[in-house]
Amino acid sequence: MTSKDRLMAEKIERVMRANIPRAEVPREDPVFHEGLARRDAAPTRDPRRRTTA
């Protein structure tokens, strides 16, 4: 690892550890809403139950 690589790694680590505020971003595109409706309409699965094909 060169000194340039080390500097870049330190900068990346600093950003990854930073306390970045999270904000919810509203999705308005139709593709997202179609997928969301499909997910909500699907029957709920029990993760403890295995299905075999």
Could you give the topology of this structure?
Layout: H1 3-17, H2 30-41
Shape: elongated
For the record, give the distance between the C-alpha atoms at the N and C termini, rounded to a whole number: 49 Å
Average pLDDT figure: 86
Q: Flag low-confidence runs.
A: none
Radius of gyration: 21 Å
Roughly how much helix do the residues carry, as a percent range?
Answer: 40-55%
Largest sheet: none
Structural class category: mainly alpha
Q: What is the chain-wise order of helices and strands?
A: HH
Counting DSSP H or I runs of 4 or more residues, the number of helices is 2
Strand content: under 5%
Q: What is the strand tally?
A: 0
Structure write-up:
- The longest helix is centred in the first third of the chain and has 15 residues, at 3-17.
- The termini are far apart.
- The chain has 53 residues and is mainly α.
- The mean pLDDT is 86.
- Helices cover 51% and strands 0% of the residues.
- The protein contains two helices and no strands.
